[in-house]
Design brief:
Blueprint lengths: L3 H4 L26 E4 L1 H7 L7 H14 L3 E5 L5 H12 L8 E7 L2 H10 L5 E9 L2 H8 L3 H22 L4 E9 L6 H15 L7 E7 L6 H14 L6 E7 L6 H10 L4 E4 L13 H10 L11 H12 L20 H21 L36 H12 L5 H18 L5 H13 L14 E8 L9 H13 L3 E10 L8 E9 L2 E9 L2 H15 L26
Parallel strand pairs: 1-8, 2-3, 3-4, 4-5, 5-6, 6-7, 7-8, 9-10
Antiparallel strand pairs: 9-11, 11-12
Helix pairs in contact: 3-12, 5-7, 7-8, 9-10, 13-14, 14-15, 14-16, 17-18
């Protein structure tokens, strides 16, 4: 009987010819490679519903706006839609002067002729010719030996040059060759074929060639591919006149690592798609590659500042959703639900603000170092609204962040703990997420809105209160001393004694008011109240009244958890 555990015996590890003196692991990527987007070719051919001409044009304009200057626009000899879109770009003069389009063609006479002729009138273009070179394809698909396979590449190059001379006399024509399934081809044979192609093309100053090495089906670890690229980089002749390019796929889920290691190993150009679209598990993801560089302080040369807009456009054109956990672009990748994560993020933002204040600069001028956030969400057009979201997994850090970002409040730690418990019990009871607006409303209702007309407390001794004052201009001492003493005398008439005064923050966001947090202690019970007023005495009085009104009272009881809805209000269906 066939079983998964016995089936593993049918598979063999990918061949690896280790490079004993490899140098790529010690290198650092200090500059972005050249990028080629193949969204309109490799990406489009993998779609259930290929893009319409208008969707293709929308995607093309998006790529140009983002900064991609090499764009593969189709396989014009294989598809009428691709041919017509190419002609639209040329005849309507839609190709910017600094953009080079590329068209793909297999090494077959009739396809090469039709492809070259389809470029008539193009000011600049690259013809990308390929043929399969791996032993499996030579034996099973093409039925040729090494000599026959090499001749396919040589003859295809000769035909391309012949037809270009006939049909494209005024075109700035570039040439690219790919030994398809390079990662499964013997290294020495890949080199042999590429050298034979260059012997025909004769690269020289002003006449370069692109040699592109695809992991057509990714079957080995990224370090194996990097070894192969470094070997090719060392052994290829006319190196100064060729661009070494890679085209990783993502069958093993390591396309990004493969591309990055290949660049370390000598690759100067990377082909891929936005968000990793493409055949099977997709091409390498240009968004992740670019923003990985960005997060290391390297300019990717591409504008990702409106990443949500980019994502919406790609989703519309491809009819494929971007996963909510997709690196950098997913709906949830800048969101923390975990209490410990939220606490660390909250402290990170506080540290950024402190450093900016010390240096007299804007927060944007401080080096980005926030726990759990590899880049600033605002740099890719995200707001901070969803960085921290509250559910039953959240803790005091998340609650503190919401109140700080929404209301400008800097809660004392013990109040953070108490209010976080209240929010968590509400989340447990109701289920799901509690929106920031509800968190703020719950805080106001529980601590700010309570009041008493008369506040004397029926105790034998004065009730101690610790005051925590939040205000940009507030300092303990100096001209505040007399005010605090006067406030203390007033509170004494209510049976309240001020024991300590602390500063908690730098003031309300967008306000010149003061916030007083009153920590009232009656026996073994601590009761908190909050006052927000323009003057210190009014804020303290309001806080103490609110705290006194809460003595002996429990927090608002949570409501019952609702039954789950039959329809999930989300773009993504719930599984199970």
């Amino acid at each position: 009987m066939h079983s998964f555990r016995t089936a593993v015996q049918r598979y063999q590890p990918a061949a690896h010819e280790p490079l004993r003196d490899r140098t790529w692991p010690d290198r650092v990527i200090a500059a972005a490679p050249r990028w080629l987007s193949t969204d309109l070719r490799d990406g489009n051919q993998s779609l259930v519903n290929p893009m319409s001409p208008m969707s293709k044009l929308r995607m093309f304009r998006l790529l140009v706006k983002m900064g991609y200057r090499e764009i593969e626009v189709g396989f014009p000899a294989a598809s009428r839609d691709d041919h017509d879109f190419l002609r639209l770009l040329i005849e309507k003069d839609l190709i910017p002067d600094d953009v080079r389009i590329t068209v793909l063609v297999q090494a077959r006479d009739d396809l090469i002729r039709r492809t070259v002729r389809s470029l008539a009138g193009a000011p600049r273009a690259t013809v990308h010719l390929y043929n399969a070179t791996s032993p499996l394809f030579r034996r099973m698909v093409l039925g040729v030996d090494r000599d026959g396979c090499r001749q396919l590449a040589v003859h295809g190059t000769q035909l391309m040059m012949k037809y270009a001379e006939e049909s494209l006399p005024d075109c700035d024509l570039g040439y690219q060759y790919s030994p398809e399934l390079f990662n499964d081809t013997e290294a020495d044979f890949s080199l042999e074929v590429c050298e034979a192609v260059m012997d025909v093309w004769q690269p020289e100053p002003g006449r370069p060639i692109i040699l592109n090495f695809p992991t057509t089906v990714e079957r080995s670890m990224p370090n194996v591919f990097a070894d192969r690229i470094e070997w090719m980089d060392r052994h290829l002749s006319r190196r100064e006149h060729l661009c070494l390019s890679v085209h990783p796929h993502n069958d093993r889920g390591t396309g990004v690592a493969t591309a990055e290691m290949a660049v370390l190993a000598g690759a100067e150009r990377v082909e891929g798609c936005l968000f990793g679209n493409g055949e099977r598990a997709g091409n390498v993801d240009l968004v992740t590659l670019g923003l990985n560089l960005f997060s290391q302080g390297v300019d990717p040369g591409i504008d990702f500042s409106g990443l949500d807009r980019v994502r919406r456009t790609v989703e519309r054109c491809t009819e494929l959703p971007v996963h909510p956990r997709h690196p950098y672009a997913g709906d949830l990748v800048y969101t923390a639900f975990s209490g410990s994560h939220q606490d660390a993020i909250n402290k990170g933002f506080a540290e950024q603000s402190r450093l900016a204040g010390e240096r007299g600069t804007a927060v944007d001028g401080v080096a980005w170092e926030i726990p759990y956030l590899p880049i600033d969400p605002r740099d890719v057009g995200r707001a901070y609204e969803s960085v921290v979201r509250i559910n039953s997994q959240s803790g005091k850090g998340g609650v503190a962040y919401v109140l700080s970002s929404r209301l400008g409040l800097h809660l004392p730690r013990d109040l953070q703990v108490e209010f976080a418990g209240l929010v968590q019990s509400r989340a447990d009871a109701e289920g799901g997420e509690i929106a920031p607006e509800r968190v703020c409303a719950l805080f106001r209702d529980e601590y700010v809105s309570r009041s008493l007309t008369v506040v004397p407390l029926a105790t034998a001794h004065p009730v101690p209160v610790h005051l925590h004052i939040d205000g940009a201009a507030f300092v303990v001492g100096g001209h505040r001393t007399d005010t605090l003493e006067r406030i203390g005398r007033g509170l004494a008439r209510w049976g309240v004694e001020v024991r300590a005064v602390h500063r908690t923050g730098t003031g309300l966001a967008d306000s010149t008011g003061l916030v007083a947090y009153a920590e009232l202690r009656v026996g073994d019970e601590t009761s908190w109240g909050v006052g927000v007023e323009a003057e210190l005495s009014a804020a303290v009085s309001a806080a103490v009244r609110s705290a006194a009104a809460r003595v002996g009272r429990t927090a608002t009881a949570p409501v019952a958890r609702p039954q789950p809805a039959s329809v999930v209000p989300s773009r993504y269906a719930r599984v199970g």
